[in-house]
């Protein structure tokens, strides 16, 4: 007989005379003559309640069942007379699949700290909170693909292993197939040539440059894949391995880019509120009481758009200015405290800051007519700060070449990138969104370690 | 004015008095008094034909337009009197966005070899063949997500950077954040501890063990991400970086696993035939004339299921047996020639071989009651050989521990994996499918380098 997943059982339209449910026991309560079992199989947040009458045989099995055990229940799906659920299972057959010794099973029926749960990342998805988190993570991934596909974008798998330190977006991990002995014996200058790829190789920090090649062929594309930073900053916002979404649009300027970013953020929030109501409800109730307000506020308002120059002026003139740890100064990146002031205090909604000084932005961003700024944009949201960062790309070959020279890079390393401006170049734009930051916005969770199944951070590679 | 993508223009229901089309010129033909332009913007295989009457102004612009140039065309969408297309654009405004010098632009209007196109992987998606390929690749990715989501599976991002050589599936790349000097000075035994993660770290060869933890929490999950092999085999079937799909199902046995694999393969083929008819048509016409027959044959037949033992016997007794390069012998892996004989000659359809000798399979596969074989399965398809490989997983703690010991591994390294069998273990199963192999099956393309945007192979890290 085929098992019915708990989600489907709870959503049944009618009673079912024979049903098979399997899952893990969350609680067991014994009464005189019968027992209650709460069963969860991960298909949804809610458990299904099972009532089994005691027979000598069943009592023997029930003795071995405790929180965490896996069971198979055969019975009837009937309307529940109790509160809190529409349906329950009257179990007539109970099978213990796998016990969980209450002396050693770490997930007992009580609240565990996030820190503790990180130390058992292989078991934490069996809790309500992390089950909900990773169902939302899955649905958010799907929503991203659906959003872009519906708009005619193509998904491109840009390479993870790369030979170029493209945009200097951060410290890179190096990869090698040489063994220790070779690494210590071969001269530094010769190691690349002797290594697997015949040159030095690293883990990508961004798929953008590759994605641009595809936007300039297929029109509209996006990447969605893992990216890496070898930065030893042990903060709640940084991980060495995280996922990023990078759309790239041909025939588009900075305004199109801002429109796409805003539309995407709203679409994703809306999709998750509609498809993951129960799971989001858990976070709104137990993690961040303001969550629903923040999300609805984001959905209901047009995002503010302000130039970097105006933003700096506003920050310098605001009442809080003297209390900032860092004085907001033209020519410097905005600090998180500045970003939060703009979104949380001043505009009270998401803000897109655009047209940044060219000196503080990478070579590929398009130089504006003022020759001082580039067509960059950062989309800031309350609590998180920067959620999306992007730009119109420099499509003019001569300007791009001089920008590469300015930054001291070698334009020969970018021959293929420059080719795209040499042959049929077109205005285009794109951005990157940190997937985990979007998840943090959606759930109110403040530590990136709690939105990644098995997070990778300095000195931490368990599981 | 907003541009209309070529796909939408070609699918128009009515003529459009004002339309803006942008794209790259595939060909230009000048006639007396007017010119034809074939424009492609990557949204679909087909070009849109543009006719522009010559005016002195337009002629000046047309002079600079050649194959590969990017243009913006304003005009009217009208029914085409010519053959081969329903609609064409009567252009009244022509703008050159970016020229492409015919002396240097490598993609002229002629057939280029796959080898040559690999050397310009940044431009090859501008050809019909590779445009089609990477649109199919995108749609196939979507189909995978849709298939699993519709069946209630959750998508899990398993880690790329790993500390364990889990299943010994292949040679691994090592990753490090130490610089050359440190690597040459620090003793081998101390390098791990001094490195970013405080231990040796590698690129993953499979997300399975992590995915199992999630199946044993959320019920049904799958991974879809990049995996890596540091194997220096320079063959048309191997790449150092490729994408893999790995579903993992709780409360499932080997039969459920075979059913899922067969259902998935058929769903994906069907989805692509329905959504990418034009692009697949190109491959059926120019790459593999038997493509449609192969795909339809796969769709229309129940896959053969045969034990490894029966398959070996069959191979030993078949007429071709003496012509095999390798004698089919019990206890050895099937060779590609054997797999192809089974699918192409004997059964003339896909074949699932199951129950392999335990000695030639990894520790995590479930030992059968005969104690000789494990509940493994390989799904073989014509032309490709192994497309899917999987197994029921060993859910019995004691058996798993002794299998780990058998293979000489250290069970302490797998404490978390064993925990899942210690606490509420359940029968479960899963498999891996090479994404690129599926693409090769779908398109008839025989070199893996031609189904990956920027392939990574030994001594090759360009782009």
TrEMBL record, chains A, B:
- Tell me one GO biological process term: asparaginyl-tRNA aminoacylation
Q: tRNA-binding: is it a keyword of this entry?
A: no
CC terms in the record's Gene Ontology section: cytoplasm
Write out the catalysed reaction: tRNA(Asn) + L-asparagine + ATP = L-asparaginyl-tRNA(Asn) + AMP + diphosphate + H(+)
- Pfam families assigned to the protein according to its UniProt record, in alphabetical order: tRNA-synt_2, tRNA_anti-codon
Q: Which GO terms describe its molecular function?
A: asparagine-tRNA ligase activity; ATP binding; nucleic acid binding
The cellular location(s) given in this protein's UniProt record come to: Cytoplasm
Q: Name the EC number(s).
A: 6.1.1.22
**Does this entry carry the keyword Ligase?**
yes
- Give the Aminoacyl-transfer RNA synthetases class-II family profile domain ranges: 134-453
Keywords per UniProt: Aminoacyl-tRNA synthetase, ATP-binding, Cytoplasm, Ligase, Nucleotide-binding, Protein biosynthesis
SUPFAM superfamilies in alphabetical order: Class II aaRS and biotin synthetases, Nucleic acid-binding proteins
For this chain, the family text in UniProt reads: Belongs to the class-II aminoacyl-tRNA synthetase family.
Question: What does the annotation say about its assembly with partners?
Answer: Homodimer.
Q: What is this protein called?
A: Asparagine--tRNA ligase
The gene that this protein is the product of is: asnS
């Amino acid at each position: 007989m085929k098992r019915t997943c708990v989600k489907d059982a709870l959503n049944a339209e009618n009673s079912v005379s024979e049903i098979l449910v399997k899952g893990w026991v969350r609680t067991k309560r014994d009464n005189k003559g019968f027992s209650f079992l709460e069963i969860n199989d991960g298909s949804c947040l809610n458990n299904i309640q099972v009532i089994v009458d005691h027979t000598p045989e069943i009592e023997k099995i029930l003795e071995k069942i405790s929180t965490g055990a896996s069971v198979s229940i055969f019975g009837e799906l009937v309307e529940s007379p109790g509160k809190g659920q529409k349906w329950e299972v009257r179990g007539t057959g109970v099978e213990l699949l796998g016990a969980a010794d209450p002396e050693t099973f770490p997930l007992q029926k009580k609240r565990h700290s996030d820190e503790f749960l990180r130390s058992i990342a292989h078991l934490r998805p069996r809790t309500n909170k992390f089950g909900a988190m990773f169902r939302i993570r899955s649905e958010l991934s799907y929503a991203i693909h659906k959003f872009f596909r519906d708009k005619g974008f193509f998904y491109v798998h840009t390479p993870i292993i790369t030979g170029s330190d493209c945009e200097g977006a951060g410290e890179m991990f190096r990869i090698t197939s040489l063994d220790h002995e070779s690494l210590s014996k071969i001269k530094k200058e010769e190691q690349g040539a002797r290594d697997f790829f015949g040159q030095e190789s690293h883990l990508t920090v961004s798929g953008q440059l590759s994605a641009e090649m595809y936007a300039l062929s297929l029109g509209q594309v996006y990447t969605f894949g893992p990216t890496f930073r070898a930065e030893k900053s042990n903060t709640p916002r940084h991980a060495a391995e995280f996922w990023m979404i990078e759309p790239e649009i041909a025939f588009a300027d900075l305004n199109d880019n801002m429109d796409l970013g805003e539309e995407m953020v709203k679409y994703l929030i809306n999709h998750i509120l509609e498809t993951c109501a129960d799971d989001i409800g858990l976070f709104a109730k137990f993690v961040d009481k303001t969550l629903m307000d923040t999300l609805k506020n984001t959905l209901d308002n047009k995002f503010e758009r302000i130039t970097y120059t105006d933003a700096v002026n506003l920050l310098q003139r605001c009442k809080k200015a003297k209390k900032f740890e860092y004085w907001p100064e033209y020519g410097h990146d905005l600090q998180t405290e500045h970003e939060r002031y703009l979104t949380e205090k001043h505009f009270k909604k998401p803000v897109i800051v655009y047209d940044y000084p060219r000196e503080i932005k990478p070579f590929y961003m398009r130089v504006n007519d003022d020759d001082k700024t580039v067509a960059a944009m950062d989309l800031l949201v309350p609590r998180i700060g920067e959620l999306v960062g992007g730009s119109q790309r420099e499509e003019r070959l001569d300007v791009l070449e001089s920008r590469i020279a300015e930054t001291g890079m070698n334009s020969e390393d970018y021959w293929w990138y420059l080719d795209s401006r040499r042959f049929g170049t077109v205005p285009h734009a794109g951005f990157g969104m940190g997937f985990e930051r979007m998840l943090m916005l959606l759930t109110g969770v403040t530590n990136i370690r709690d939105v990644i199944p098995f997070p990778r951070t300095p000195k931490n590679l368990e599981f």
